Amino acid sequence: GTTLTISSNHWIMAWTGLEINTLAILPLIAKSHHPRAIEAATKYFLVQAAASALVLFSSMTNAWHTGQWDITQLTHPTSSVILTSAIAMKLGLVPFHFWFPEVLQGSSLLTGLLLSTAMKFPPLTLLFLTSHSLDPTLLTLMAIMSTALGGWMGLNQTQIRKILAFSSISHLGWMAIIIAFNPKLTMLNFYLYSLMTATVFLTLNTMKVTKLPSLMTAWTKTPSLNAMLLLALLSLAGLPPLTGFLPKWLIIQELTKQEMALAATIISLLSLLSLFFYLRLAYCATITLPPHTTNHIKLWH
């Protein structure tokens, strides 16, 4: 599905690829037979089906007005707005973000990793291909809202999957704000984000951790993995000596070149919100034990 979408020139083929992707991930979400997993699969299916229909609708509108089915020839303004909303829905950008934390919470860690990285790639490619005809104002607005919401909503979560979902939403904000000006930076940001998120998800999967309290006792099992997790989380937060700082730096630089210093300032300040919960995760992972007695059996007992 992904290969079909990223290599196609025709809108119908791109849409087919997106549909195949959606259908392929559903059994992976619903695999555990838990009611919450089934609910997550249903939510995911409904949202993605609606978004795919919107993609098809926008390309049809464009073809109706311009006679072009070529992906790069999306010139009709209404079509490009509809497409932006459809892709935002597929990715989980604000204001279409409600499904994403719920779906991630209902899936296993490995499926969550797929949902956060591989499933974001085809829609982002479509945005990349049409980036020259997208509306920068709309994208900037969505991006700033995503970064704000990703930071604020992640603050009072104790479920690590939900925290990672909100982190994904705020990273998508960084990708969306720059795509109309320098699409290559968006792709760089996406690749580095996928790498760091994969590190976090795979580490958590090895330690069998899904909640903050169980993360606090995880250092007894795998001290070295925990140190790795600390670095990966700080890198996701975008702290300077680490890799995650690179895309943010380049994006801020590009935004100031485009005379969007205000947007750059706002989005940088909003990413401080998500820095807080990354630091809390890192703190729980490596430094502290909870002040109260835990219900978890320590592994060395």
UniProtKB/TrEMBL annotation:
Keywords: Electron transport, Membrane, Mitochondrion, Mitochondrion inner membrane, NAD, Respiratory chain, Translocase, Transmembrane, Transmembrane helix, Transport, Ubiquinone. Its main location: mitochondrion. It is found in: Mitochondrion inner membrane. One of its GO terms (cellular component) is mitochondrial inner membrane. It catalyses: a ubiquinone + NADH + 5 H(+)(in) = a ubiquinol + NAD(+) + 4 H(+)(out). Residues 275-301 form the NADH dehydrogenase subunit 2 C-terminal domain. InterPro entries: Complex_I_Subunit_2 (IPR050175), NADH_DH_su2_C (IPR010933), NADH_UbQ_OxRdtase_chain2 (IPR003917), ND/Mrp_TM (IPR001750). One of its GO terms (biological process) is mitochondrial electron transport, NADH to ubiquinone. It comes from the Eukaryota. The keyword Electron transport applies. Signal peptide: none annotated. Residues 8-273 form the NADH:quinone oxidoreductase/Mrp antiporter transmembrane domain. It is a multi-pass membrane protein. The keyword Membrane applies. The chain crosses the membrane at residues 12-30, 42-60, 80-100, 112-131, 137-156, 163-181, 187-204, 225-246, 261-279. Its EC number is 7.1.1.2. One of its GO terms (molecular function) is NADH dehydrogenase (ubiquinone) activity. Pfam families: NADH_dehy_S2_C, Proton_antipo_M. Belongs to the complex I subunit 2 family. Core subunit of the mitochondrial membrane respiratory chain NADH dehydrogenase (Complex I) which catalyzes electron transfer from NADH through the respiratory chain, using ubiquinone as an electron acceptor. Essential for the catalytic activity and assembly of complex I. This is NADH-ubiquinone oxidoreductase chain 2. It comes from Malurus melanocephalus.
